[in-house]
Design goal:
CATH topology of the largest domain in chain A: Rossmann fold
Largest sheet of chain A: 6 strands, mixed
Radius of gyration of chain A: 24 Å
Oligomer: heterodimer
Bound molecules: adenosine-5'-triphosphate, magnesium ion
Largest interface: A-B, 26 and 25 residues
Helix content of chain A: 10-25%
CATH superfamily of one domain in chain B: MetI-like
Helix content of chain B: over 70%
Shape of chain B: flat
Number of helices of chain B: 13
Largest sheet of chain B: none
CATH superfamily of the largest domain in chain A: P-loop containing nucleotide triphosphate hydrolases
CATH topology of one domain in chain B: MetI-like fold
Number of domains of chain A: 2
Distance between the termini of chain A: 38 Å
Number of helices of chain A: 8
Shape of chain A: elongated
CATH class of one domain in chain B: Mainly Alpha
Number of strands of chain A: 20
CATH class of the largest domain in chain A: Alpha Beta
Radius of gyration of chain B: 23 Å
Distance between the termini of chain B: 32 Å
Structural class of chain B: mainly alpha
């Protein structure tokens, strides 16, 4: 079996630096999700692991092997491409079996594994069709099946569910998760959907402009974001941030002042107060705010209030009595607050 | 009212080119073919075709023509494919390579024939070079009636030099239409360069190969100036016979018969290419 170890990977395309020096270790059998906004370098990092891009600096190890200078076919990996890359001139059956044929797997074994792969992704009815005769989602499943039957110790997936409709996506997500539990292959999974990332990853590496901001298990990422960017990217709604300045053991924002156990923070420092929507209650005392919108979402209601001019999202019970234009106070536990530096966005140690 | 205009408009726009094609190509072509099967009196007859079949050069002509096709077309396709794959691997300076390689395209076929005649003739560059280097001590005669193999080799070389580039240009264009993902996926799933070419590149290149083959075969059937320049009348081919019957013997009917033969062979080959290399309906997105 094989983990992946990346040391100081740098990748530039002409003047753009797609990967700015990334070191990351994926443990054997781990399901790691690469998450980040469009253009942050997820695909590029994945392609570097696959060997489809040559890195400008750094080393990549798969298991104990230094694969940095090996071509893709010698790295013993399987991959699902963002564009599927399902061969149009082959039937679904030949597509799924392509990698096995290239490895000269004996025919009976090849056929058995193709059958298994097709069954796993519900592709049996389409085995003799050509990709042009499939829907986008079915084609994507062919790409996944082609990668899975390889039994490669490392599996790379680039947004493999992006083209499925919401319902199928939910189903496929659960299937992939179950599959992973069964075969336990080292998996790197790229997505820009944070719900997908939260639900599937053993760990999530949040990327931004070519660097990894934080790499931790989903709940840790959610409760203790390492930066304003991570807090704002993970969670729906994203974390709320209020800007202010420390003064004599208190945090003073626009129109409010909170006592702060300020022993560790020097006076006059600009900070951001980060707080999750579900940790805010409407109370008697606290930060004064004005209700802007109330959106019932079924189980809860999402209330948008304005603190000064800053919108803040509050997760309220669906039977909440607050109404637009009402003045309210926002209360929360000091322990739930995450303090960030206002200029760098980095979280303060707590 | 509107609907009618829209229906007619495409035809109206096509009309000028249709008239042009009809006047300059279709009508002369039909007239030429009619010459092969219609006597001056207007009666239809197979007399000319029968006369062609017993013509002294007839058997040599069609055999030589097919021989040249069988030698030239596969050689050119293989050469052009190798070059196209090379260009497509985007090595440094590949664009220059493409341009330089395409230069012979700009040279007329007769000029190309004469150019190669200057190489292969008894006092040509080849003999001079070989003598200068001391490889042979006496000039050899490559192009003569007795040396049929020499004639064929010279023609094949000259034709390949002249027209491989057009095949390559078509194939390079075809290769560039194939998304790079497919090459990458093949590599990733364990195919080395050779198997990648066999299993992925060539099948995806079928439409371009088909066009290249059809164009090349049609031109090879019409090979004429190069043959004439290098072999004169020592090597009859169909196109040259048609020309000779018309220009030298002033017999338009027999010339047309040879032309009809050429047309028939071309249609047969094209049909085979379309059948063998065509995409299956299931592979094409409707
Ligand atoms: N072949 C290339 N040539 C030049 N620039 C490239 C190339 N490939 C990627 N880039 C640039 O590198 C950066 C990272 O691209 P990448 O494809 O890795 O993004 P991504 O995170 O996968 O985005 P998405 O979620 O939209 O797929 C982008 O700014 C992109 O423009
Ligand atoms: Mg991407």
């Amino acid at each position: 079996m094989a983990g992946i170890r990346m040391q100081g990977i740098v990748k530039t395309f002409g003047k753009t630096t797609a990967i700015k020096e990334i070191s990351l270790e994926v443990k054997d059998g781990e399901f790691l999700v690469l998450l980040g906004p469009s253009g942050c370098g997820k695909t590029t990092l994945l392609r570097c692991i696959a060997g489809l891009e040559t890195v400008d600096a750094g080393r990549i190890f798969i298991g104990d092997r230094d694969v940095t200078d090996l071509p893709p076919r010698h790295r013993n990996i399987a991959m699902v491409f963002q564009s599927y890359a399902v061969f149009p001139h082959m039937t679904v059956r030949s597509n799924i079996g392509f990698g096995l044929r290239m490895k000269r797997v004996p025919k009976p074994q090849l056929e058995r594994r193709v059958q298994e792969g097709a069954a796993l992704l519900a592709l049996e009815p389409f085995l003799d069709r050509y990709p042009a005769q499939l829907s986008g989602g079915q084609r994507q499943r062919v790409a996944v099946a082609r990668a899975l039957v390889m039994d490669a110790p490392v599996l790379l997936m680039d947004e493999p569910l992006s083209n499925l409709d919401a319902l199928l996506r939910l189903q496929a997500r659960a299937d992939l998760k179950r599959l992973h539990r069964e075969v336990k292959r080292t998996t790197v999974y790229v997505t820009h959907d944070q719900v997908e990332a939260m639900s599937m990853g053993d760990r999530i590496a949040v990327m931004r402009e070519g660097v990894i901001e934080q790499c931790e298990p989903p709940m840790q990422l959610y409760t203790n974001p390492a930066s304003q960017f991570v807090g704002g990217f993970i969670g729906s709604p994203p974390m709320n941030f209020l800007r202010g300045r420390t003064k004599a053991g208190a945090f003073e924002g626009e129109g409010f002042s909170l006592p702060m156990d300020g022993s560790r923070v020097e006076d006059g420092r600009e900070l951001l107060l980060g707080i999750r929507a579900e940790q805010i209650r409407f109370g008697e005392r606290g930060v004064p705010a004005r209700v802007q919108v109330v959106e019932p979402l079924g189980a809860t209601a999402l209330v948008t209030v304005l603190v000064g001019k800053v919108p803040v999202k509050v997760d309220a019970p669906v039977n909440t009595t607050v109404r637009p234009d009402q003045n309210v106070s926002l209360a929360f536990e000091p322990a739930d607050i995450r303090w960030m530096d206002a200029t760098t966005g980095a979280a303060l140690a707590h | 009212m509107w609907a009618r205009t829209e229906e007619i408009l495409p035809y109206a726009l096509l009309l000028p080119s249709l008239v042009f094609l009809a006047l300059l190509i279709l009508i002369p072509m039909v007239q030429a073919l009619l010459l092969a099967i219609q006597a001056d009196s207007g009666e239809f007859t197979t007399a000319y075709l029968q006369r062609m079949a017993v013509d002294v050069n007839f058997n040599d002509a069609w055999r030589n023509t097919l021989l040249l096709i069988v030698l030239i077309v596969p050689l050119q396709i293989v050469l052009a494919l190798a070059m196209a794959l090379l260009v497509n691997s985007r090595f440094k300076g590949h664009q220059w390579f493409l341009y330089v390689y395409a230069i012979p395209l700009a040279i007329s076929d007769l000029a190309a024939g004469i150019l190669w005649l200057a190489v292969f003739t008894e006092r040509g560059y080849l003999n001079t070079a070989a003598q200068g280097l001391g490889i042979v001590d006496q000039a050899k005669v490559y192009l003569s009636f007795e040396n049929f193999g020499g004639l064929v080799a010279a023609i094949v070389i000259a034709e390949s030099w002249r027209a491989t580039a057009i095949v390559m240009v078509i194939l390079v264009a075809g290769l560039q239409l194939i998304p790079r993902d497919f090459f990458e996926a093949a590599d990733l799933f364990g195919a080395n360069r050779l198997r990648r070419t066999l299993y992925v590149v060539l099948p995806l290149l079928r439409p371009s190969l088909q066009s290249a083959l059809i164009i090349r075969t049609i031109f090879a059937f019409q090979t004429f100036a190069v043959v004439l320049a290098l072999a004169g009348r020592n090597m009859p081919v169909i196109a040259a016979e048609a020309y000779s019957w018309y220009a030298n013997n002033r017999d338009a009917h027999l010339a047309a018969s040879y032309a009809l033969l050429l047309l028939g062979l071309t249609i047969v080959f094209t049909f085979v290419y379309l059948r063998v290399l065509g995409l299956r309906e299931a592979e094409v997105k409707r």
